[in-house]
Amino acid sequence: MDFETEYIEEPSLKFKSGEAKDPRAGLMEFGPWTPGSSGHNEIKIGLIGTNRSISAVKGLLQEMETVIPRNSEEVKRHQPPFPSMGPNSPFEASFVLMDRHQSEFTRRDLDHITQHDSPSENVGILLDQMDKRLQILKRRNDPPPDVVIVAIPEEIEDACTRSGVNKAKMKDGPTDFHDRIKTFGLKYDVPTQLIRPASVHFDGTGQSKAEVAWNLSVGLLYKSREGKPWKVADLAEDTCYAGISFYRERHGDRSKAHASLAQVFLDTGESFVVWGDPAIKDDSKSNYHLTKDSAEDIVTQILDQYTMSKPRPERLVLHKTSRFHDEEKEGFLNAASDIPKLDFVTIREGDGIRLFPSGDYPPLRGTVLHPRNTSKYFLYTQGYVPSLETYPGPRIPTPITVELDPDVNHTSHKEICREILSFTKLDWNTSSFCKKQPVTIKVARSVGAILAESKNRGIDVQPQYYYYM
User: Fold this and answer.
1) For the chain, which terminal residue's Cβ has fewer other Cβ atoms within 10 angstroms, N or C?
2) What pTM does this model have?
3) How would DSSP label each residue in 304-346?
4) For 423-457, what is each residue's pLDDT tens digit?
5) Could you tell me where the DSSP H helices lie in 85-176?
6) Hey, which CATH number is domain 233-466, 3.30.420.10, 1.10.357.10, 3.40.50.1980, 3.30.830.10?
């Protein structure tokens, strides 16, 4: 097969007073994109846990008021020391800890939560407790905390986790503890942050303290609803970007019930979630798609959400993990009939295409491999990063597949791939340089699980992404 290769320059990120390619370097030098309405953001932190687990998290938050060095003597560009929080810090933000924003589990509570041999039963009791405590924290405080941290104690994690399985989760039947905590955040209008014991007990097996501090600070800044850490410097102002995905519902026949959601992105750095109708399965494949009416409805919702803060877009870009079904396309096109520029793009993993360079490092991030006479482009979203002078990943990187719809494609493949590279840098659960998948696709699974849990329990869902992350 005949191939072409090309390279796409690393997208820049925009911060308060300048641009940078590396999120951490940009935050340290220029400050967050929007630090808050007053120029300094005070993040009121709520805490739920035992006295010990709360003390451990408070100790970490207080230590984050100072510089936290790296463990290694050799400081790498992509792993700088944590620069500290506070009024004069690069983050222009401080944590506010007040006793009235804390809710402690007593020994009696712990005994009640951990009394059963069945982890599932213990999780059920724990969730009932968490529901009540979040409700109290929200209603007895004026103003309430901006973010509530759930500091999971070791004894609760042990009692609520099945042993002998990889990546064990705290579950009660189909109910996942993480997802339910997020539904409580939706229910009581307060974003949440889970911190497991491994994130505060630094024994050398997990992330370093500086790494945890970096990621936690970025996540809490965004979840506080005051600040946005950064935005992509050159996303088009008149373009609406959205990723459409499917998730499994948690009622009825769970093997068949799939529903749709979309995450909408604006050039301002804002992100919203909208939810659509159930999906139907293709006759001879495992893929799901929307009916014409459902497809029209979800794109109508996408554009309505976009126009709440901006004029009608000149261009609409839709990302999906499966090809666009003819019925779907008809509905999407009907809803966007007045949008002059449209791009429908399939993004997936798993194709067995690899590029082997002659040197010691993997291919450059931004390398595009294109089989001639096809609409497929194999994009390396991870790889050697010239601005970091290294490859900041643990495994040999593989490309993602970018496929342009043959019927709905206004923009060049190079611009489409550049935008996808940009969206790999917008995951505010982390401060790392980039992720493999763009956030238009990556977050769909976790958001879908939370939506399924919320709708199954009759909880009103909100469009703002910070409730789900």
Assistant:
1) N
2) 0.89
3) HHHTTTSPPPSEEEEEESS---HHHHHHHHHHTTT-SEEEEEE
4) 999 888 888 888 999 988 877 667 877 887 887 78
5) 107-113, 119-139, 154-159
6) 3.30.420.10
